[in-house]
C-alpha cells in the first residue's frame, strides 16, 4: 500500500480499515459522543473527596468550609454522572426510532438513585478501611491505608461501580472498574458482590469475576483468582451470558497468594485456602486446604514446591 515514491497510500489504507469485516465501529446517532473517561476520572476524584472528608481536598479544610465545599462538589458529581450515563445509554442503543430524550430522563433517574446510595457506600468503605488497618501489622493508622493501600483505592472504585451496575447503568461501571485495575493490577468486575470489611493484602494480580459472591470479613492476598471453570455456549455457539459461574466465599474466608478457585463452588465460612492451591470443588466450613508435598528427598513434589496435591483438613 505504497506509491512509487514510497509514501503510504492513505486512501487504500482507509478503505481497508473501514471495509467489510473491519473491527467494530461506533457511529453515534445525533452526533452523541462516547462516555468520557476523563470526565469519569474527574468525578471519581470528587467522590474520593466526599467519601474520605479532609483527605483529598486541594486545600486544608475546616469544619465550616468542609460542609459547603462538599455540597457543591456533590452537585458536580450528579451533573457529571447524569451526563455520562446518558452517553452510555446512547452508546448501547440500537433503536433508531428513538430520540435522545428518553436517555436523558433515564440517566437523571439513575444518577439520582446513585447519589442516595452514597451513605451506604461510605459505610462499606469504612469497614474496608478498618479491615485493612486491623489485618496488616505494617499499617500505622487507618489514614495510612486510605492514602497508600491499593486495596482501598480498588474498593472505592468497586463499591461505586457495583451500585451503578445494580442500577443497570451501561458501560460506566466497567470504565470505573478498569480505572482501578490499570493503577493497582487488581481486576474486579463491577458485578461481583463483596461483603463488609473486605481486604486485599498487596493486591497485584488478583482477579474476581462478575458472579462472585464474597461474604463478610474475607481476605485475599496477591495473585488470587476467583474465576470461571468453563463457559457454556448457546445453540449458535455464542457464550451464554449472565450465568453464575464464579466462586462463593462465605464469611471469614482467607485465600493466600497465588491460589486459584474456579467455577460455582462454595468455600465454607471460616476456611483457609493456602498459597498456590488449585481448587474446583466445594469446601466445608472451617476447612484448611493446603498443598501436600512429599517429604522424600529429591522427589518431584519437593523440587517443584507448590506443584503438590491439595490436602483439605479441618482448621
How are the SSEs placed, and which strands pair?
Blueprint: H1 10-18, H2 37-51, H3 63-92, H4 101-116, H5 118-135, H6 142-148, H7 150-166, H8 172-184, E1 187-188, E2 193-194, E3 199-201, E4 207-208, E5 213-214, E6 219-221, E7 225-227, E8 248-249, E9 254-255, E10 260-262, E11 266-267, E12 272-273, E13 278-279, E14 287-292, H9 300-304, E15 309-314
Parallel strand pairs: 1-4, 2-5, 3-6, 4-7, 5-8, 6-9, 7-10, 8-11, 9-12, 10-13, 12-14
Antiparallel strand pairs: 14-15
Features:
serine acetyltransferase, domain 1; 2 domains; UDP N-Acetylglucosamine Acyltransferase, domain 1; 315 residues; 9 helices; single chain; five-stranded parallel sheet
Task: Predict the CATH topology of the largest domain.
Answer: serine acetyltransferase, domain 1
- Mind telling me which CATH architecture of the largest domain this is? Orthogonal Bundle
Terminus-to-terminus distance: 66 Å
Estimate the helix proportion, in percent: 40-55%
Order of helix and strand elements from N to C terminus: HHHHHHHHEEEEEEEEEEEEEEHE
> How confident overall, as mean pLDDT?
88
Strand order across the largest sheet: 3-6-9-12-14-15
Kindly report the oligomeric state of this protein: single chain
* Secondary structure: number of strands: 15
- Note the overall shape: globular
What is the assigned CATH homologous superfamily of the largest domain? serine acetyltransferase, domain 1
The low-pLDDT segments are 298-308
Alpha-beta classification: alpha/beta
Count of separate structural domains: 2
Radius of gyration based on Cα positions:
24 Å
Percent of sequence in beta strands: 5-15%
Biggest beta sheet attributes: 6 strands, mixed
Question: In CATH, what is the class of the largest domain?
Answer: Mainly Alpha
Count of DSSP helices? Answer: 9
Amino acid at each position: 500500500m505504497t506509491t512509487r515514491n514510497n509514501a503510504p497510500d492513505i486512501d487504500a489504507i482507509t478503505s481497508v480499515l473501514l471495509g467489510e469485516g473491519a473491527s467494530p465501529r461506533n457511529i453515534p446517532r445525533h452526533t452523541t459522543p462516547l462516555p468520557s473517561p476523563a470526565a469519569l476520572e474527574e468525578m471519581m476524584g470528587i467522590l474520593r473527596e466526599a467519601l474520605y472528608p479532609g483527605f483529598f481536598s486541594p486545600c486544608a479544610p475546616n469544619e465550616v468550609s468542609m460542609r459547603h465545599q462538599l455540597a457543591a462538589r456533590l452537585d458536580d458529581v450528579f451533573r457529571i454522572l447524569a451526563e455520562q450515563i446518558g452517553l452510555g445509554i446512547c452508546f448501547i442503543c440500537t433503536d433508531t426510532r428513538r430520540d435522545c430524550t428518553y436517555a436523558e430522563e433515564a440517566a437523571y433517574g439513575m444518577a439520582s438513585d446513585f447519589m442516595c446510595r452514597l451513605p451506604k457506600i461510605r459505610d462499606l468503605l469504612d469497614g474496608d478501611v478498618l479491615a485493612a488497618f486491623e489485618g496488616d501489622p505494617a499499617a500505622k493508622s487507618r489514614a495510612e491505608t486510605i492514602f497508600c493501600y491499593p486495596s482501598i483505592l480498588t474498593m472505592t472504585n468497586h463499591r461505586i461501580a457495583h451500585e451503578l451496575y445494580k442500577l443497570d447503568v451501561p458501560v460506566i461501571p466497567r470504565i470505573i472498574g478498569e480505572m482501578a485495575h490499570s493503577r493497582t493490577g487488581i481486576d474486579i468486575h463491577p458485578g461481583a458482590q463483596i461483603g463488609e470489611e473486605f481486604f486485599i493484602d498487596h493486591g497485584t494480580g488478583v482477579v474476581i469475576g462478575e458472579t462472585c459472591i464474597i461474604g463478610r470479613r474475607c481476605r485475599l492476598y496477591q495473585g488470587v483468582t476467583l474465576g470461571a471453570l468453563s463457559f457454556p455456549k448457546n445453540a449458535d455457539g455464542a457464550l451464554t451470558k449472565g450465568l453464575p459461574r464464579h466462586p462463593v466465599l462465605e464469611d471469614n474466608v482467607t485465600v493466600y497468594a497465588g491460589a486459584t478457585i474456579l467455577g460455582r463452588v462454595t468455600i465454607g465460612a471460616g476456611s483457609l485456602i493456602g498459597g498456590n492451591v488449585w481448587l474446583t470443588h466445594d469446601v466445608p466450613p472451617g476447612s484448611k486446604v493446603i498443598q501436600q508435598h512429599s517429604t522424600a528427598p529429591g522427589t518431584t513434589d519437593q523440587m517443584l514446591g507448590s506443584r503438590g496435591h491439595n490436602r483439605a483438613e479441618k482448621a
